[in-house]
Amino acid sequence: MVIWCSQKTCKQLCEGKKKMSNKALILVDVQNDFCPGGLLAVPNGDQVVGPLNRMIDAAIKNGWEIYASRDWHPAQTKHFEKWPAHCVQNTPGAEFHPNLRLPWRYPKLRVISKGLGDADDYSAFDGGMRPKAKTLYIGGLATDYCVLWTVKKAVELGYEAILLIDACRAVNINPDDGDNAVAEMRALHAKIATTEEALNELHA
Ligand SMILES: [Zn+2]
User: Fold this and answer.
1) How far is CA 53 from each of CA 99, 118, 139, 192, rounded to the nearest angstrom?
2) Which is catalytic among the residues 23, 87, 121, 146?
3) In terms of pTM, does the model score above 0.85?
């Protein structure tokens, strides 16, 4: 009986711990070249920084994993036959936006580099990201490419994906691309939430 009790206590503790860290924050490509003034600027791309900073604070407080993906292209790649050159390794354009408060000393922060060869690598998973958490909060740039493909892959791999709708912006080569991408994610049963809603839910 005593053994059963201690097992139960242990289980409760473990479950509690799991609950605290069963979420992860995915920051997709918040890089200078995707922000105004960059080589492949997403309109208002820098506006994702504020809401994502709030999510970073919440992630640290709750002990979540944080993944910051980045395009990290060689100077020459087939990828640049489709797109203007951008986010070339070790250039200022490839750096994270200076106002994004990445917690460099936080042990659960991982930088995911992708697009190292000729492949497009739109999804952060293409850079080898494999969160242990089951629920992923995803925001960044751009809604209609790297965010979309990251959400799609997350759902395919069985994660619960939550798109932070105010923390992403679209390239919109066609004016509806961003809206269509959100509709596609919704159809895949990704959840769509504002950072406000996500944070409120955490406090509830
Ligand atoms: Zn790229």
Assistant:
1) 9, 32, 11, 18
2) 146
3) yes
CA distance 167 to 139: 5
The DSSP 8-state label assigned to residue 41 in this structure reads P
Could you tell me the pLDDT band of residue 204, with boundaries at 50, 70 and 90? confident
Residue 87 lies in a domain: yes
In a domain, 24, yes or no: yes
CA angle 81, 156, 108 (to 5 degrees): 85
Residue 8: band (very low, low, confident or very high) from pLDDT cuts 50, 70, 90? low
Q: How many domains, in total, are found in the chain?
A: 1
Contact 140, 146 (CB under 8 A): yes
CATH number at residue 68: 3.40.50.850
Contact 137, 198 (CB under 8 A): yes
List residues, by chain if needed, whose CB lies under 5 Å from ion ligand 1: 71, 115
Q: For all residues of the chain together, what is the average pLDDT?
A: 93
Look up 29 and say whether it is catalytic: yes
